[in-house]
């Protein structure tokens, strides 16, 4: 399997090189040259497999033998051995056809752990084999940062720098990033929003001198391996509900479009998926885009689901690439428009292709709070605000007698203020995080300027700038 850039001007890479590259050198995102596919018989054979076995089956075609099977299996076992639920990603039924896919049983209580625990092991392995080191830079609206720091803390071959929006993440999210005692971990509070953080990370990658000198690598979902690992739970959950012999719908709380893009890939790989529903909060750029065909940035508003307070939805570029028939020139034009004017129009044919695959809806903060209250009253299930966004939108897009799975992307204890105000319940942190709010914090506050951030990374990475 080879990997190509959505902008068509970066070298084609194998799996291990794409893994270390993160962003392509032309500013695009790597995608597999073709989608591997499974027959119904092969998908049926996943019934009764463990999560780890399905992961190996689904990921193997992407890794393509660049890591031997025994080593890959061991990494998968170790990564998912860190999860606190034996099923890794269990399903909970909350209505006759309504299901919640719990993706928060990892160490930092968000779906990011699913991919990040594997990514850290994959990177470590490839760097060790090559005798290389890497400087990892990442942007977070709250969850990716904690998951990445947990997965990479103390690793000998990597230094990790996580940029988060100052005073715009929940206290639990912040402390998951700022209380690590590992010397290779650096949390940076940027005076700006998540889009500023993400733009700074992309700008560091696009500064070729800095990129090469620091041997930059990325752990955001711009890195193909993140998406790859997230495809697995679409297969495990669909198969548990009778797939591939009936179609399952999924609603995904969406920000950077990585998680739902993984669902799109699962469908491309042969999984019978009925509806794929994008759920946004008040930062509804994706819902507006599907309705109007115009991707248009507006100011980010702070909501009770801060991890989805995003306007520049990176992985939408991967979808555009598919919708435009994998034509990189078209993607270059669209992305140039976004850079110049903060907007672009999607041509009719591509928009039709997107609308064929996706639906979208938005939940206001009031609707999110009401969904938390009512779901608790009706089912006894306590939702976090991101998942509640999904549950609200799922209800509007469900079909009678057809299973709808909403992805539960975070544990309610990560967002206690919003959860308590809607439900009256103060969700407790699990035992391993119980002293989190008492731990000492260590982080740097920086202006959102490329030179400032590069100088900080250059001074503190063990690969000296
Ligand atoms: C809790 C939570 N839910 C949903 C999302 C949205 O996921 P994605 O960015 O993959 O669309 C994020 C982060 O992006 C998140 O942290
Ligand atoms: N919500 C995310 C934003 C970054 O998303 P990623 O999936 O591209 O890493 C976060 O929690 O940081």
TrEMBL record:
InterPro entries, alphabetized: Ser/Thr_deHydtase_PyrdxlP-BS, Thr_synth_N, Thr_synth_N_sf, Thr_synthase-like, Threonine_Synthase, TrpB-like_PALP_sf
Enzyme Commission (EC) number: 4.2.3.1
GO molecular function: threonine synthase activity
Record keywords: Amino-acid biosynthesis, Lyase, Pyridoxal phosphate
Needed cofactors: pyridoxal 5'-phosphate
Top-tier EC class: lyase
Residue intervals of the Threonine synthase N-terminal domain: 2-80
Glycoprotein in keyword set: no
Chemical reaction(s) catalysed: O-phospho-L-homoserine + H2O = L-threonine + phosphate
UniProt keyword Lyase present: yes
Similarity annotation: Belongs to the threonine synthase family.
UniProt xrefs under NCBIfam families: thrC
The protein's name in its UniProt record: Threonine synthase
Species in which this protein is naturally found: Mycoplana rhizolycopersici
Organismal lineage: Bacteria, Pseudomonadati, Pseudomonadota, Alphaproteobacteria, Hyphomicrobiales
């Amino acid at each position: 399997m080879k990997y190509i850039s959505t902008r068509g001007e970066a070298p084609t890479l194998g799996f291990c090189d794409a893994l270390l590259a993160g962003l392509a050198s032309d500013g695009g995102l790597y995608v597999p040259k073709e989608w591997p596919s499974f027959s119904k018989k092969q998908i049926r054979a996943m019934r009764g497999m463990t999560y780890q076995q399905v992961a190996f089956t689904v990921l193997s075609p992407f890794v393509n033998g660049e890591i031997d099977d025994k080593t890959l299996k061991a990494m998968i076992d170790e990564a998912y051995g860190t999860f606190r639920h034996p099923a890794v990603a269990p399903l909970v039924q909350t209505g006759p056809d309504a299901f919640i896919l719990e993706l928060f049983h990892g160490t930092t209580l968000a779906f990011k752990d699913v991919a990040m625990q594997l990514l850290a092991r994959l990177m470590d392995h490839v760097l060790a084999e090559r005798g290389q080191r890497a400087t990892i830079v990442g942007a977070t609206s709250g969850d990716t940062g904690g998951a990445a720091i947990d997965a990479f803390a103390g690793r000998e071959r990597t230094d990790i720098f996580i940029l988060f929006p100052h005073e715009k993440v929940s206290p639990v999210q912040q402390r998951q990033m700022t209380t690590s005692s590992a010397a290779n971990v650096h949390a940076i509070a940027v005076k700006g929003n998540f889009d500023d953080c993400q733009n700074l990370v992309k700008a560091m990658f696009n500064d070729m001198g800095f990129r090469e000198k620091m041997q930059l690598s990325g752990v955001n979902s711009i890195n193909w391996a993140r998406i790859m690992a997230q495809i697995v739970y679409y297969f495990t959950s669909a198969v548990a509900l009778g797939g591939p012999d009936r179609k399952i719908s999924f609603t995904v709380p969406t920000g950077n479009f990585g998680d739902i893009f993984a669902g799109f890939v699962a469908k491309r790989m042969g999984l019978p998926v009925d509806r794929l529903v994008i759920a946004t909060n008040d930062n509804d750029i994706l819902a507006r885009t599907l309705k109007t065909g115009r991707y248009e940035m507006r100011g980010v508003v702070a909501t009770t689901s801060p991890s989805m307070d995003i306007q520049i939805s990176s992985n939408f570029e991967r979808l555009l690439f598919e919708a435009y028939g994998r034509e990189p020139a078209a993607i270059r034009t669209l992305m140039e428009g976004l850079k110049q004017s903060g907007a672009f129009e999607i041509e009719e044919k591509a928009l039709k292709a997107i609308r064929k695959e996706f639906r979208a809806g938005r939940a206001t903060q009031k609707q999110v709070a009401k969904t938390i209250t009512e779901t608790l009253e009706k089912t006894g299930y306590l939702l976090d605000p991101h998942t509640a966004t999904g549950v609200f939108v799922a209800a509007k897009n469900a079909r009678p007698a057809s299973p709808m799975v909403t992805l539960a992307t975070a544990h309610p204890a990560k967002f206690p203020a919003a959860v308590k105000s809607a439900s009256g319940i103060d969700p407790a942190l699990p035992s391993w995080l119980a002293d989190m709010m008492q731990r000492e914090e260590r982080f740097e506050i920086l202006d959102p300027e490329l030179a400032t951030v590069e100088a900080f990374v250059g001074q503190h990475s063990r690969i000296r700038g």
